[in-house]
């Protein structure tokens, strides 16, 4: 769509990332039935609860290798399977959900919160916020935050703009930290679990924010290998909020917490 993205737009990393995200979110076709997970989570996948248990504090991502896995555009029909997988590995993740998908999926959202995941605002219905007035952006954000709050009792801390697209008007209307990504798995494009795993394992660095879409079955199928591979590299799986350790400010833009 945005062959001629205007210069005042804040582009994420590269035009490729933005165009990718556009296509990703345009394709919401339902894939085939979810596969049954067959890999039980091994013990020893440290979480904030485990590592921070003695001190009562969160993981110190300045000292440990942390990564935030993020899943956009859901919840979808494969999201509960993904939650099963994450639970099996004691891994935390962040879900940038659409407000329009909250109704009918409140159980899934409540489960996310109960199991220690973070829910972020990904707009009501995936509008390109750079095309909206400040008032429309404000309304979109509040409507989505409210749907999440009503469903879960928790307020989203962060938001992610659809397509990674923002302009100064949209930014001025958003009073949450805005979170993009530094690793784009291109999962919507490859629809290939092995490719998704390879990109993740090749490109993740300590402090990375990795972009996935849990509406794709192939992405959910990749997650066991992603978790095993990154764990082997010494990573801990934290939420975006934990990754940035409360340093984020409302209205500021973040791609990662790489050191
Ligand atoms: Ni999206």
Describe the structure.
The protein is of the alpha/beta class. The chain has a single domain (3-254), classed as TIM Barrel (Alpha-Beta Barrel), CATH 3.20.20.370. It has helices spanning 15-26, 48-51, 79-88, 106-114, 134-152, 168-173, 187-190, 193-203, 217-232, 240-243, and strands spanning 66-72, 94-97, 118-121, 178-179, 183-184, 208-213, 236-237, 253-254. Strand 1, helix 3 (79-88) and strand 2 form a beta-alpha-beta unit. The structure holds nickel (II) ion (NI). Nickel (II) ion is lined by residues 25, 72-73, 122, 126, 162.
How would you describe this structure in keywords?
259 residues; two-stranded parallel sheet; TIM Barrel; alpha/beta; globular; binds nickel (II) ion; 8 strands
What is the CATH topology classification name? TIM Barrel
The average pLDDT is 84
Please identify, by name, the CATH architecture.
Answer: Alpha-Beta Barrel
**SS strand fraction:** 5-15%
Uncertain runs? 1-56
| Bound compounds | nickel (II) ion
CATH class: Alpha Beta
- Strand-pairing-aware structural class: alpha/beta
- Note the quaternary state here: single chain
What coarse outline follows from CA principal-axis ratios?
globular
Largest sheet: 6 strands, parallel
Q: Work out the radius of gyration.
A: 17 Å
Number of strands: 8
Number of domains in the coordinates?
Answer: 1
Q: What is the rounded distance between the termini?
A: 34 Å
Q: Spell out the CATH superfamily.
A: Glycoside hydrolase/deacetylase
Order of H and E elements: HHEHEHEHHEEHHEHEHE
Question: What's the helical proportion of residues?
Answer: 25-40%
What's the total helix number? 10
